[in-house]
Specification:
The complex is a heterodimer of chains A (506) and B (225).
Chain A: H1 2-19, H2 24-52, E1 55-57, E2 62-64, H3 66-95, H4 103-123, H5 129-147, H6 153-188, H7 197-202, H8 209-227, H9 236-242, H10 245-274, H11 278-299, H12 304-325, H13 327-359, H14 370-373, H15 375-388, H16 395-408, H17 412-440, H18 450-454, H19 461-465, H20 469-480, H21 484-497, H22 499-503
Antiparallel strand pairs in A: 1-2
Helix pairs in contact in A: 1-2, 1-4, 2-3, 3-4, 3-10, 3-13, 4-5, 4-10, 5-6, 5-10, 6-8, 6-9, 8-10, 8-11, 9-10, 9-12, 10-12, 10-13, 11-12, 11-17, 12-13, 12-16, 12-17, 13-15, 13-16, 13-20, 13-21, 15-17, 16-17, 16-20
Chain B: H1 4-27, H2 31-56, H3 59-86, H4 99-122, H5 136-153, H6 157-179, H7 184-212
Helix pairs in contact in B: 1-2, 1-4, 1-5, 1-6, 2-3, 2-6, 3-7, 4-5, 5-6, 6-7
The chains are: A mainly alpha (506), B mainly alpha (225).
Chain lengths: 506, 225
């Protein structure tokens, strides 16, 4: 019941916001109400799944298990917070005349945001893997216009690369979906053939291994483009830096994991069908390569949001490594890292957005003395960077530690991956901290007007940071302990994706 | 009501036709002609979908045929034509690779497609679940490769969209031939995605033209590093 409300609400919020573009306060109120209700409903569904196990809805069209539940919660929380932060962010852009259509453009923005949120929520609840494909492409389409929102030359270039590269990738993945369907036909015959996760996961052992290997390669390359795996990530830094910052937060924190979600569903089936480490090692390879490729771009980066974007490439690589290592520990580490990264990266993008607006630039060399200009934002950025690079006592430290541990406990390939990761993480730490310290400390330049820096902001710092507090709490809490019910949910994810369960006789 | 063999034969002929169109698309110099070829691709695919529907005689496959016709023959080429006329550019295509080199590469890609499909034709991908159309899978892969090649070597944004739709046509043909199409709900979803995607790409291309006064994608060089 919660689920139907959850999936029905965002489009309504979207439409109403767009229609109300002339009445600012009403539009903002609808936005806030819609966002908060969406979060509450998503948490309701997640709690329900945590208590009662996986569940089918609407005659098997929707299927929510532990993995879907975690994704729903993360998507809703990050998206909801982004919607709240958007209010002051977009208002500032409107005042600065950065929005092409003025107030109507703001209406389109809120429409876009909630539709984007909706496509992600729907995608992780679908049972049919073919419809999952449709959903993932839909998320690309829903976010493309948001990437190009400001309609500057750079924004349009980013939007073009984004929509073209991701659609090409997803088209390649469709071939993999087709091959999976063929394998299902071979195994079950026309009547019972299915692309439903429920059917495929039960019958995975009977699927032709060769066919599934081929299918997985196409799916991995295809969805991997969307997830930001190197070397298919060339669209990512542009798209995530040109979009409005609340949208960038959603893109980095939850959209990339949505694509990874698609890969994981196919990975679990391939694992059960082949009984080898073929798919795991491919995931590992892409993961390590992504971390490796991201490092130099982080170290010599000049743009604050591109820095965060390449950091996302690095972290999605880490998630791929965790899931590639697999097993109960690897999957637990992976899903924990997914949640931690989502929370931390969102906070960082919100802070970066605020800094960008106050200083009027995203160039790191042009920004100085954030802590003096606004202590709250400065501290948030500093803590965020410390967190994202894995300093204790944050969630990311725990998840990166667990990933490394899982790697070192595995076979030779996994140990090699683990060691490489640990070394590279050190370099990333140094690079990002270097950039962050330059930004945060020092005195604001004499050229910059006192007025702009001191913040002629329409809201106080405290009002700005209020929506971010839940994210901050999760960030710190997960660095100390993951509460038992949540921990059990993460363990349930490992069970859902494990071939042992998938191969069990029913 | 078409028999299995006849449906297979139609699809086979369609596949060869699509192969020809794909190669012709590499040689084309004028964008309006390229859009026309894309519409022709859609028409041939509709024939294939129609013969599959005549075999299955299921309302769902007939609905898929109608949707294919509508989207691939009318909607997408129409959209591209509309944008082409709104955009102040010359109708010639610009290419990174000269035509003298492009054609041999295209032939090479077709041969590659046949070579890759060879092991599958005999053993695994038999006609048990699809149609007996031995040229279908190679043609589908060829369209995939040729579409990618077009996207990589053409500069104008609209032509890249044509390359993308060509790729998707390839997958559609593969689905028809190998599994008699995907489940209907999935097919509808894919059609909607393709249409919306083409529309959005056309919109972004239009915006790019407004700002850059060109739709040469090699002018999109502002973002680096």
């Amino acid at each position: 019941m919660f689920l139907s409300l959850l999936l029905a609400l965002p489009p309504i919020t979207a439409l109403v916001c767009r229609l109300l573009y002339r009445k600012r306060r009403a539009m903002e109120a609808v936005n806030v109400l819609g966002a908060l209700t969406t979060v509450a409903l998503a948490l309701g569904v997640a709690t329900d799944i945590a208590r009662h196990g996986s569940h089918e809805f609407a005659g098997g069209v929707f299927y929510v298990d532990a993995l879907s539940a975690v994704m729903l919660a993360v998507i809703a929380i990050v998206g909801g917070t982004a919607a709240l932060v958007s209010i002051s962010y977009i208002q500032h852009d409107l005042d600065e005349r950065l929005i092409p259509d003025g107030r109507r453009g703001v209406g389109w923005y809120y429409l876009g945001l909630h539709i984007f949120l909706w496509t992600m929520l729907v995608t992780v609840c679908l049972n049919n893997l073919g419809l999952l494909w449709v959903g993932i492409e839909a998320t690309t389409l829903a976010s493309a216009l948001l990437v190009g929102f400001y309609r500057t030359k750079a924004a349009l270039e980013a939007a073009w690369k984004y929509i073209i590269l991701c659609t090409v990738g997803i088209t390649i993945a469709l071939f993999g979906v087709l091959l999976t369907y063929y394998a299902s036909l071979q195994a079950a015959g026309t009547g019972a053939a299915s692309l439903n996760w429920t059917a495929l996961s039960h019958g995975a052992k009977g699927l032709d291994p060769t066919m599934m290997r081929l299918a997985f390669v196409f799916v991995l390359v295809g969805f991997g483009t969307k997830a930001g795996f190197a070397p298919l990530h060339t669209w990512l830094a542009d798209a995530h830096s040109q979009a409005p910052s609340p949208i960038s937060a959603m893109l980095s924190a939850v959209l990339l994991p949505c694509a990874l979600y698609g890969i994981l569903r196919f990975h679990a089936i391939t694992l059960a069908a082949t009984g080898t480490t073929f798919s795991s090692n491919l995931l590992l390879a892409f993961g390590v390569f992504s971390v490796v490729l991201a490092v130099p771009f982080i170290v010599v980066q000049r743009d604050l949001k591109r820095l965060l974007a390449y950091s996302s490439v690095e972290h999605i690589g880490l998630m791929a490594v965790a899931f590639g290592i697999g097993g109960p520990l690897g999957i637990y580490a992976g899903i924990l890292h997914l949640v931690n990264h989502a929370v931390t990266k969102a906070l960082l993008f919100f802070a970066a957005g605020e800094i960008g607006q106050r200083f009027g630039t995203r160039r790191i060399s042009a920004i100085r003395g954030v802590i003096q200009a606004s202590p709250l934002v400065g501290w948030l950025l500093l803590l965020g960077v410390l967190a994202i690079t894995g300093s204790p006592p944050t969630g990311i430290f725990i998840s990166e530690f667990t990933i490394a541990g899982a790697g070192l406990a595995g076979d030779r390939v996994q140990v090699a991956a683990g060691v490489t990761i640990v070394l590279l993480l050190g370099v990333v730490f140094a690079g990002m901290l270097f950039h962050a310290l330059r930004l945060v400390y020092g005195a604001p330049e004499r050229k910059a007007e006192r007025g702009a820096l001191a913040g002629e902001r329409k809201i106080s710092d405290l009002a700005w940071i209020a929506p971010l507090v839940p994210l901050l709490l999760v960030l710190v809490l997960f660095g100390i302990i993951v509460p038992a019910p949540i921990s059990r949910l993460f363990e349930a994810v490992a069970t859902t994706l494990s071939p042992v369960t998938l191969n069990a006789l029913r | 009501m078409l028999s299995l063999e006849h449906a297979g034969m139609v699809i086979d002929v369609v596949a060869l036709g699509l192969l020809g169109l794909g190669l012709a698309g590499v040689l084309v110099k004028q964008i309006p002609v390229a859009i026309g070829f894309l519409a022709l691709q859609g028409l041939l695919l509709s024939f294939a979908a129609g013969s599959a529907a005549s075999f299955e005689m299921d309302w769902r496959t007939w609905a898929a045929f109608v949707v294919t016709l509508g989207v691939k023959v009318i909607a997408i080429p129409g959209l591209l034509w509309f944008i082409l006329n709104r955009v102040a550019i010359q109708h010639e295509m610009e290419t990174v690779v000269g035509l003298k080199l492009a054609f041999p590469i295209a032939i090479g890609l077709v041969l590659l497609a046949y070579w890759i499909s060879d092991p599958f034709a005999a053993s695994t991908l038999s006609s048990a679940h699809g149609f007996d159309a031995p040229n279908a899978l190679p043609a589908a892969l060829a369209l995939l490769f040729l579409g990618l090649f077009t996207m990589a070597t053409r500069k104008k944004a609209l032509t890249q969209v044509i390359g993308l739709v060509t790729m998707e046509n390839g997958i559609y043909l593969a689905a028809l031939a190998v599994t008699r199409g995907l489940p209907s709900a999935v097919e509808f979803g894919i059609a909607m995605d393709v249409l919306t995607g083409a529309a959005l790409m056309a919109l972004v291309a239009h915006e790019i033209n407004q700002l850059f006064s060109t739709i040469n994608t090699d002018r999109l060089r502002t973002l680096r590093g």
